[in-house]
Design a protein that fits this description.
This protein is an alpha+beta fold and 496 residues long. Helix content is 40%, strand content 14%. It has 15 helices and 14 strands. Strands 2-9-10-12-11-4 form a six-stranded antiparallel beta sheet, sandwiched between helices. The protein is globular and about 65 Å long. The two termini are 19 Å apart. 44% of the residues are buried. The structure holds adenosine monophosphate and magnesium ion. The site of magnesium ion has 3 residues, from loops.
Length: 496
């Protein structure tokens, strides 16, 4: 059963919540109203004070026990009306009707600067969309999402954020018995490609049309145009998702489960289940234990983004044209822009990583040859790019082979041709090539200590390092080392 009773409500004037619930004004089929399951013994594990203050929340003087009650859902803020959202999705290529099976959106907080943030509890109990699941989440995966999403934010990659993790005091039964926990997630919205697929699946043209207008109003109102709204939205989403995947490629991020229900309309990274950062450069890298076919491997992410956008366009067809053949032609024409937009954004991203200003017909080849060299030599993606930022050719190690030397000479020649100084070029590179990423073994060490011993020392050290990923610091050197040689194959799990 899921909880539908009325909760204690607090105005929490100290926190400064200002809730609206615009999504709940959509047709009722898009959500179910319900309350978070009560938690026996909430305990605050971590709270993101800097994010809170960015959002205009004033949490500094609130005792931890009160924050725990609030961020476990035992006390609801004034104006919150929790809902589980309905959606569908293509999971590993197959269409399924889904919905928030273990999450509730409390509503939208309007920050003092006018920005609107969805506030979501993840792990808050069963919902009408839970299917066979228990609606719960365990502490490890929730802290993992906290670490990686905050790292992504600091890296400058669009992402949902993590505001708090609270343990519930109740066990969660997986392979082992684990501590239950709730993550408070903050997002520009939780509209997904799958939300539109759900509306199309219901054959509710009015609902679909309302949803399109809602999404444009919320995310693409700057595109003030007379064009067909569905096409306007398709264009906007295509741009934002291409921008996102190019950022993933820049920092070596592998999402791991790019199902259409996990792809936001806003272009924020969402659902940090089996994701991980690549160490050795290999486009075939996939860490997820369930991704047997490497569908969501590092180098496949652009193709999958496009595939997902085709599913998005299919959902919008009835609004594109009443004649289905015409609608398909128009949609295909729009989607065909993907390759050029992607290529141009990817090239510009690589130019920045390599310290190039302006355009040069050689740039793509220089970038691709560097990647090939890394792949052949099993070089670390992050460290090898960062090595170039040192400003002088490497004198030792794997980088002194002749293929590298030849490539280095081409790269230098290209940089000497441009009118900007070498210092300017290095500056550009240092802003686009992180020195620190949340390395898999560091993340696991931090999570093991936190979930098994309740000791957050490693977790806070890691958060501290990744909060400023572009500035090298001697005392953080151990965070640049790839995993130890005997580490074995790294595998990730969906965290349900
Ligand atoms: P995800 O892989 O996290 O995107 O989840 C896919 C679907 O499964 C979503 O609809 C989730 O809400 C649902 N789900 C995941 N874990 C659970 C759980 N423990 N209980 C109920 N539903 C879940
Ligand atoms: Mg999901």
């Amino acid at each position: 059963m899921y909880a539908i009773a009325n909760k204690n409500v607090t105005s929490m004037p100290e926190l400064n919540w200002k809730f609206d619930n615009s999504y709940a004004r959509l047709p009722e089929a898009f959500f179910s109203r319900l309350e978070p399951a009560p938690a026996k013994e909430p305990n605050l594990v971590i709270f993101n004070h800097s994010l809170a203050s960015e959002m205009g929340l004033d949490a500094e003087n609130i005792p931890e026990s009160k924050l725990a009650e609030l961020f476990v859902g035992n006390t609801l803020p004034k104006g919150a009306t929790p809902i589980a959202q309905a959606y569908a999705g293509h999971q590993f290529g197959h269409f399924t009707v889904l919905g928030d099976g273990r999450a509730l959106v409390l509503g939208e907080h309007i920050a003092p600067d006018g920005l609107r943030y969805d506030i979501q509890f993840k792990g808050s109990g069963r919902t009408p969309y839970s299917r066979g699941g228990d609606g719960r989440a365990a502490i490890g995966p929730m802290l993992r999402e906290y670490i990686i999403s905050e790292a992504m934010a600091a890296l400058g990659v669009p992402t949902t954020r993590s505001l708090a993790v609270v343990t519930t005091g109740e066990p969660v039964y997986r392979e082992n018995i684990l501590q239950g926990a709730i993550l408070t997630r903050v997002a520009k919205s939780h509209l997904r490609v799958g939300t539109f697929e759900y509306a199309a699946y219901r054959r509710d043209l009015q609902g679909l049309s309302n949803l399109v207008d809602y999404a444009i109003d919320r995310h693409f109102s700057r595109f003030n145009s007379k064009e067909n709204s569905a096409l306007l939205l398709l264009k906007g989403v295509m741009e934002s998702q291409i921008g996102l995947v190019v950022n993933w490629l820049r920092v070596g991020f592998i999402h791991g489960v790019m199902n259409t229900d996990n792809m936001t309309i806003s272009g924020e990274t969402i659902d940090y289940g089996p994701c991980a950062f690549m160490d050795v450069y290999d486009p075939q890298t996939a860490f997820s234990s369930v991704d047997h076919g490497r569908r969501y491997a590092f180098g496949n992410q652009p193709i999958i983004t496009r595939w997902n956008l085709v599913r998005f366009a299919e959902a919008l067809l009835p609004l594109i044209h009443s004649d289905v053949d015409k609608a398909v032609n128009i949609a295909e024409e729009h989607i065909s822009a993907f390759d050029n937009i992607f290529k141009s954004q990817w090239t510009s991203m690589m130019q920045k990583k390599l310290g190039f200003f302006g355009e040069n017909p050689e740039d793509v080849a220089i970038a691709e040859d560097f990647l090939s060299w890394m792949q052949t030599n099993k070089a670390d993606y992050t460290n090898t790019f960062r090595l170039l930022c040192a400003g002088s050719p490497p004198m030792e190690g794997e980088h002194i082979d002749s293929a590298f030397a030849d490539w280095y000479a081409r790269w230098e020649a290209r940089r000497i041709q441009q009118s900007e100084t070498i210092d300017e070029s290095l500056k550009l590179m240092r802003k686009n090539n992180p020195a620190y990423i949340p390395r898999n073994h560091k993340v696991e060490d931090a999570l093991n200590l936190a979930s098994e011993k309740g000791d957050l020392t490693l977790l806070h050290s890691l958060l501290n390092v990744i909060a400023d990923p572009y500035i090298e610091r001697n005392e953080h050197e151990s965070y640049t080392a790839p995993h130890p040689p005997d580490y074995g194959r790294y595998q990730t799990f969906c965290g349900t």
